[in-house]
Amino acid sequence: MTSKQLKESTDYLISKGFEAPEIGVVLGTGLGRLVDDIENPIEAHYNHIPYFPLATVEFHSGKLIYGLLEGKKVVVMQGRFHFYEGYDLIDVTYPIRVMHMLGIKKLLISNAAGAINSNFKKGNMMLIEDHINLQGGSPLAFKNVGAFGDRFTDMSEPYDLDMRSKLETIAKNENITLQKGVYVSVVGPQLETKAEYRMLKMLGADAVGMSTVPEVIVANHLKLPIVAVSVLTDECDPDNLKPVNIEEIIEVAGKTEPKMIKLFRELIKII
Ligand code: HPA
Predict the structure, then answer these.
(1) What spacing in Å lies between the alpha carbon of 102 and ligand 1's midpoint?
(2) Could you tell me if the CB of 112 is within 6 A of ligand 1?
(3) Residues 97, 222: contact at Cβ < 8 Å?
(4) Residue 269, Cβ neighbours under 10 Å: how many?
(5) What's the gap in Å between 57 CA and the centre of ligand 1?
(6) Beta carbon of 209 within 6 Å of any ligand 1 atom
(7) Is 253 close to ligand 1, i.e. is its CB under 6 Å away?
(8) How far is the CA of 133 from the centre of ligand 1 (A)?
(9) Ligand 1 atom 2, closest CA
(10) What are 67-89's pLDDT values in tens digits?
(11) In Å, how far are 21, 130, 155, 180 from 152, measured between CA atoms?
C-alpha cells in the first residue's frame, strides 16, 4: 500500500461523485439493507475501484455506496474483506484508509458474531466496548507505517465514548436490547471448538467474530473515532454446543437487521 495508490482509489471515487462524505459505515454479514435508505445513491463496485482487493464471498455484494442518510453525506461499505478470504490485513483495511482519505470524520461498524457470554441471546445486539485481537497479526505491521500515522498506535480507548453513550441512549429510547462487552477476533473461517469457546470465555471475551478488529486498529491509527455493534447470531455454549451453519447465522442477522438500521440511522442523525 502506498499513498499514491490510496490517492488513485480516492480520486476515482471523487470522479464518480463521492464528494466529501462525513460518516463511513461498514455493514457486516446479513446487514446490507441500510443502503436501501440512502438518497441519491452512487455506487462503486469494489472490483472497479483501483487497488481495491477483489470481493470473493458471494453473499457479500461488495460495493461502496455514497449518498444522503438522515441528511448526512455517508459512504457505506456493503460487504467487507476478511483475513480468512486470503487477503493480508493491509488489504482487509485498505477501504478504511480510502474512506478516511475521502474525508469521513466518524466510522460506524457492524458485524455478525457468536455470543460467548451466557447472558446474551441469539438476536441480541452488543455494543463493543473493547476487543482482543487473536488474528495473529496487525494491519500496522509494515515498513513505512510511520508515513501514515503512529507505528505504536494507542489502543487504551479504541471505541469512541461519546458515540457509545449516544447509542446506549438511543437503544433505551427505542426499547432495543443492547448488550455491552468485549469482542474477540479470530481468523476463521472454521467456527470454534468447544475447547476454544471455553478458552475465549476465560480470556474475557463476550462475543467472537472474524472481522472488525483490523478495521478498528487502522481507524485508531488514523485517529478516526469509531463505534461498533455486533449482532449475536448464535449462542456459543461449550456445554451445549449445537452445530451452527452459516445460513442460520445470516438468517438471524437478517431478522435483527431492522433494529441495527434503527440504531445506526438515529446515531447518524445526531453525530
Ligand atoms: N464464531 C462463532 N460464532 C459466530 C461467529 C464466529 O466467529 N461469527 C458469527 N457467529
Answers:
(1) 32
(2) yes
(3) yes
(4) 13
(5) 16
(6) yes
(7) no
(8) 15
(9) 114
(10) 999 999 999 999 899 999 889 99
(11) 28, 18, 9, 27
Alpha helices, DSSP H only, in 141-223? 161-173, 194-203, 213-221
- C-alpha 163/C-alpha 161 separation (Å) is 6
Q: Is 200 in the pocket of ligand 1 (CB under 6 A)?
A: no
Cell numbers of 245, please? 451453519
| Residue 121 DSSP code | -
Cell numbers at 157, concatenated: 480507548
**What is the DSSP code string of 87-98?**
--HHHHTHHHHH
∠ CA 191-195-196, rounded to 5°: 45
pLDDT band at residue 61, thresholds of 50, 70 and 90?
low
Q: What residue type is assigned to position 224 of the chain?
A: L
**E strands, the chain, in order:** 23-27, 39-45, 63-69, 72-78, 106-115, 125-133, 178-185, 207-209, 226-235
Rounded to whole angstroms, the Cα distance separating 140 from 113 reads 24
Mean pLDDT, to the nearest integer, of 78-102? 95
Name the grid cell of 181: 462487552
Helices and strands (H and E) in the chain: how many: 7, 9
Three-state SS at 126: strand
Where do the domains of the chain lie? 3-270
CA atoms within 13 A on the CB side of 13: 35
The CATH T-level fold of domain 3-270 is Rossmann fold (3.40.50)
pTM listed for this prediction: 0.95
Question: Which one of 110, 121, 126, 192 would you pick to mutate in the ligand 1 pocket, going by the greatest count of ligand atoms within 8 A of its CB?
Answer: 192
Is the distance from the beta carbon of residue 191 to the nearest atom of ligand 1 less than 6 Å? Answer: yes
C-alpha 101 – ligand 1 centre gap (Å): 31
